[in-house]
Amino acid sequence: MSDTIYREIIIDHYKNPRNFGKIKNPDFKSEVSNPLCGDKIKMFINIEDDKIRDMKFMGCGCVISIATASILTEKLKAMKASEILRMSNDDALSMLEIKLSPNRQKCALLGFWAIKKAISGSHGVKK
Ligand code: FES
User: Fold this and answer.
1) Segments of the chain assigned E as strands
2) Domains observed in the chain
3) Which distant-in-sequence residues (6+ apart) come within 8 Å of 46 by Cβ?
4) What are phi and psi of 105, to 5 degrees?
5) pLDDT computed for residue 57 by the predictor
6) Mean pLDDT, to the nearest integer, of 30-55?
7) Is any ligand 1 atom within 6 A of the Cβ of residue 118?
8) How many A from CA of 49 to the centre of ligand 1?
9) Is the Cβ atom of 105 under 6 angstroms away from ligand 1?
10) What is the pLDDT of residue 98?
């Protein structure tokens, strides 16, 4: 993917984040923040029989954190909760297809950490 196309995708997801909002009475929710900047993502997830029924997020953060939370919620909604729990940070980053410095990787993983933290409550697994 060229840098220009990549930048356009990121800006599009930042300006029009998918799955942005709150689920009323979610089965699971979480909040994570980036200690470097204080940005926060809140995640709301409904799960039924290991299937993700709905996933929404809210938060304030940089372009990368909001855009990647948007991209990841789109992709991970199609997966099973148990599959997501087995994913590593590297799996999430490769799903994003972005080359980032270590500090920017924290921005890009904020949404993923929020998803895993919320889902871990559904399986009794600590993050
Ligand atoms: Fe705060 Fe990116 S600068 S999450």
Assistant:
1) 28-33, 40-48, 51-60
2) 3-119 (3.90.1010.10)
3) 23, 26, 27, 28, 52, 53, 54, 55
4) -65, -35
5) 98
6) 95
7) no
8) 34
9) no
10) 79
Q: Ligand 1 pocket check: which of 36, 57, 60, 100 to mutate, most ligand atoms within 8 Å of Cβ?
A: 36
Place of tokens 């926060």: 40
Give the Å distances, CA to CA, from 1 to 37, 62, 97, 99: 29, 22, 8, 11
Average pLDDT, the chain: 91
Q: In this model, does residue 124 exceed pLDDT 50?
A: no
Query: What average pLDDT does this structure show over 81-85?
Result: 97
Question: CB of 39 within 8 A of CB of 62?
Answer: yes
Compute, in angstroms, the gap from residue 50 CA to the centroid of ligand 1. Answer: 31
